[in-house]
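[Discussion] Sanity-checking designs against the backbone

I'm trying to build intuition for which residues belong where. Below is a structure token string of 418 positions. I'd appreciate it if someone posts a full sequence so I can compare it with mine line by line.
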């Protein structure tokens, strides 16, 4: 028997009031809010850092408002970022304005493009002043601790071995492929999406300026974001067609990209192989039940969103704010009851369902039709023609994207930091 086996069979342990699994936007925001409220909370992040490319980088006005309410906005906006107010599209050669955030009556009428790792690192640094908040990196939840029918924490793998983290409440924020959700046996309702997305970067020169957001041609669709020194590109393909795209070869893909977006021609050489092209398998789904006794799922662990509108990060932040608002005080006394935990679903399910319904409408009425291709010229959908012709209508999609349905505001307790 290996000499290390006896030690490995006796996991180290710790006990906290709340264990949050996943250091993404939902997990880090909830950790910050509970730490701010004086709750003994630990956030587990399985990676050694937050540096992951091709994650959601759009910070919308709803999230900027939350940062303002927390007194963090000045420092946050000092981080490098780009701002987007007007969203224009090119449909078969016809330019239309899709949304204009400058028409919104909000304190921050723009979308901030910022690498997600900067956002998460900012929250971690800001949270260090709360002694009750711990963020454990390189710590991956691998199973749940059970006490009868209740979840009593998680078993996690660290660089130093296994650790049992006992918690009155465990919150799953570990994304659309949630280990915690799977171990808890919570059933996922798949809604479906007709597309997948290829993400890549193309170099950008200082003299390259273009405010086009989406480009749509028969059989093809692409979205580009100006990220300062590079273009972030999303090339939309029909669901399950990635192998066919690879079979055509990289050069065929890049030729299509440059034909759709000539401004990328100088920088497209940054894409040297399919290793530089990341496949995002698009899914829209949600849980019917978000809880078990002692367990709550929020963010992508409770509802995966389509990239339509780029709202996923911001829905996750809204979930975290609602969770802290409803549960922070109750956590001072122990684990909230099943009814109290389910209040999060009752609060957040309507915004989730409405947002997903709007994403499905866009998918079915714009994206699916564009991806079918054909010999006929692409027609601009009637709704987009109306929005383009009547500028006041541009505030409607702008509000859906920027503010969302029933935005949350910070009402949770704040215990003075030392």
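Best answer:
Here's mine. Compare freely.
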């Amino acid at each position: 028997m290996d000499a290390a086996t006896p030690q490995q069979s006796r996991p180290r342990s710790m006990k906290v009031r709340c264990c949050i699994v996943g250091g993404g936007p939902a997990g880090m925001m909830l950790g910050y809010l509970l730490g701010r409220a004086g709750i003994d909370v630990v956030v587990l992040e399985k990676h050694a850092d937050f540096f992951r490319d091709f994650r959601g980088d759009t910070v919308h006005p709803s999230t900027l408002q939350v940062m303002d309410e927390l007194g963090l906005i000045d420092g946050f906006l000092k981080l490098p970022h780009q701002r987007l107010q007007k969203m224009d599209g090119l449909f078969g050669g016809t330019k239309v304005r899709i949304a204009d955030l400058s028409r919104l009556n909000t304190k921050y009428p723009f979308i901030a493009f910022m690498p997600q790792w900067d956002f998460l690192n900012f929250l971690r640094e800001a949270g260090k002043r709360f002694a009750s908040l711990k963020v454990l990196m390189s710590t991956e939840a691998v199973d749940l601790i059970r006490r009868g029918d209740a979840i009593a924490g998680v078993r996690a793998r660290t660089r130093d071995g296994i650790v049992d983290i006992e918690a009155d409440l465990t919150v799953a924020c570990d994304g659309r492929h949630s280990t915690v959700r799977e171990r808890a046996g919570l059933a996922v309702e798949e809604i479906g999406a007709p597309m997948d997305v290829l993400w890549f970067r193309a170099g950008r020169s200082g003299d390259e300026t273009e405010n086009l957001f989406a480009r749509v041609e028969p059989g093809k669709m692409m979205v580009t974001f100006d990220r300062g020194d590079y273009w972030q590109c999303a090339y939309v393909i029909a669901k399950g067609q990635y192998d066919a795209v690879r079979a055509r070869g990289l050069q065929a893909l890049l030729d299509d990209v440059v034909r759709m977006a000539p401004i990328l021609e100088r920088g497209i050489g940054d894409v040297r192989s399919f290793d530089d092209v990341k496949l995002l398998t698009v899914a829209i789904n949600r849980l019917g039940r978000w809880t078990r006794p002692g367990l709550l799922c929020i963010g992508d662990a409770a509802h995966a969103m389509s990239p339509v509108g780029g709202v996923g990060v911001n829905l996750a932040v809204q979930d975290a704010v609602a969770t802290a608002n409803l549960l922070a005080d109750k956590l001072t006394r122990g684990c909230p009851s099943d009814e109290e935990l389910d209040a999060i679903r009752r609060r957040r399910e309507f915004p989730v369902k409405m947002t997903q319904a709007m994403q499905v409408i866009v998918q079915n009425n714009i994206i699916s039709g564009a991806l079918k291709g054909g010999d006929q010229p692409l027609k601009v959908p009637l709704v987009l023609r109306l929005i383009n012709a009547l500028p006041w209508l541009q505030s409607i999609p702008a509000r859906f994207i920027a503010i969302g349905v029933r935005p949350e505001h910070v009402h949770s307790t704040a215990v003075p930091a030392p």
